[in-house]
Amino acid sequence: MRQETFTDMEYSCRKKKTRRGEFLETMDEIIPWDEWIGVIEPYYPKGRRGRPPVGIEKMLRMYLLQIWFNLSDPATEDAIYDSYSMRKFVGIDFMTESVPDETTLCRFRHRMEENGLNKLFFDAIDRVMVETGHMMKGGTIVDAAIVNVPRVPKNAEKACPSKKGTAWAVGLKCHIDAEALHGKEKGL
Question: What is the pLDDT of residue 132?
Answer without folding.
Answer: 78
